Amino acid sequence: MTERELVEEYFIENRTKVLDIAAFLDRLDRAREMDAEDDFRVVAFRKALQALCIHEGPRVQTIQMILSDPNTDLLEQLDRKSAFGAYGGNSQEVR
Questions:
Q1: Number of domains, the chain
Q2: Radius of gyration of the chain (CA)
Q3: Tens digits of per-residue pLDDT, 55-89?
Q4: CA-CA distance, 58 to 47, in Å (whole number)?
Q5: Would you give the distance in Å from CA 76 to the centre of its chain?
Q6: Angle value at C-alpha 67, between 62 and 73, nearest 5 degrees
Q7: Residue 42 domain boundaries
């Protein structure tokens, strides 16, 4: 597809996603307490947003690595029943 064809096909869909992200960030800014700035998910989210603005290499791969657990060792057993959506090292805890 050409750039114009891509814009015609996907602009509205991605415009909506950008607005959703802006709304999420606005809600964080208006939160009753500012108690999650160091939360590993917020930190990873902000790093991912910064990576969107860089025009080097494949953005999707860079962002996937920001959000992924870099460990390749297999666990002896499942350590939790749900995913967090970002990697927080050994301090992955929901507050």
A1: 2
A2: 17
A3: 888 999 999 999 988 878 887 877 665 567 788 87
A4: 15
A5: 28
A6: 105
A7: 35-68
